[in-house]
């Protein structure tokens, strides 16, 4: 190692780099100090020591605003790489340990409320040190949280097509047409698509996976959807149909109780069920931490078992 580099390494500390990063992010010495539990003079002192080690200023004031110098921008890029490598090292060291532990944050679209809980019991038995946090959200929020890297994983159907996302399909999502038990269509020997659509179609909101699947189906068979009512939840769809307001298409799993009780009836209709998939979705450039990797690996290894459990629920 060249002497100049060795001298720089000897004079720099991770604390100085950490302080620089906080000031760089906040563009403010006081807020950086609040983040790190340091006083403003202590932050200033660490930055001065860093600048002395580098031989160049990393921040400068213009009026009352703090700006980063060209040298500071270079340093910020290097620190991102260094801290990223350290985080990866930490994850690898944890993976080498005997137990995976920590928090796992999963966002799930509301349609998946009948799917996700069935994935968790056995997983939690295998990994008792993992604390699972689930947030049920609308599809729009789920995609926003994906883009903002808010959660480790997202469970949804009709995953968005995006080169920055990885998708692991793990279970069929069957969308079926349903009507109330006394509906006139049930008396017909054969029901056409037009008969069904003219019976008062109730749909989910445009952003939902179910609605997008319906829109895609309608384009493929070249029919137009003219809904009489739009409701932003599957529970709302079910109750609207049971109340006699119309007909709908809904994920089979979300209507199992009503189908088994006879409160809703699946209508035989050409082209149905529409088959989509529930998926695990995550950023493909995201460095998976051990708890995230453990869950993805678990789902991947148990896809056949998940499918068998699903079939058992349908038959039960």
- Find the structural class using helix and strand composition: alpha/beta
Calculate the terminal CA-CA distance, rounded to whole Å: 69 Å
Approximate shape: elongated
CATH topology of the largest domain: D-Maltodextrin-Binding Protein, domain 2
Which regions have little confidence, pLDDT < 50, spanning 5+ residues?
none
Describe the largest sheet: 9 strands, mixed
Broad CATH class of the largest domain: Alpha Beta
Radius of gyration (CA) equals: 27 Å
The appropriate CATH architecture of the largest domain is 3-Layer(aba) Sandwich
Number of strands: 11
- Beta-strand level of the residues, as a percent range? 15-25%
Overall domain count: 2
Write the layout of secondary structure elements.
Blueprint: H1 3-11, H2 14-26, H3 29-36, H4 40-54, E1 59-62, E2 65-68, H5 70-96, E3 102-109, H6 116-126, E4 130-137, H7 139-147, E5 153-157, E6 165-179, H8 193-197, E7 201-203, H9 209-221, E8 229-230, H10 234-242, E9 247-251, H11 256-261, E10 265-266, E11 274-283, H12 290-301, H13 303-315
Parallel strand pairs: 3-4, 3-5, 7-8, 7-9
Antiparallel strand pairs: 1-2, 5-11, 6-9, 6-10, 6-11
Helix pairs in contact: 2-3, 2-4, 3-4
Folded structure, characterized:
With 316 residues, this protein is an alpha/beta fold. It has 2 domains: 3-96, Arc Repressor Mutant, subunit A, CATH 1.10.10.10; 101-316, D-Maltodextrin-Binding Protein, domain 2 (3-Layer(aba) Sandwich), CATH 3.40.190.290. The chain has 13 helices and 11 strands. The protein has helices at residues 3-11, 14-26, 29-36, 40-54, 70-96, 116-126, 139-147, 193-197, 209-221, 234-242, 256-261, 290-301, 303-315; strands spanning 59-62, 65-68, 102-109, 130-137, 153-157, 165-179, 201-203, 229-230, 247-251, 265-266, 274-283. Strands 3, 4, 5, 6, 7, 8, 9, 10 and 11 form a 9-stranded mixed beta sheet that branches. The termini are far apart. The relative contact order is 0.13.
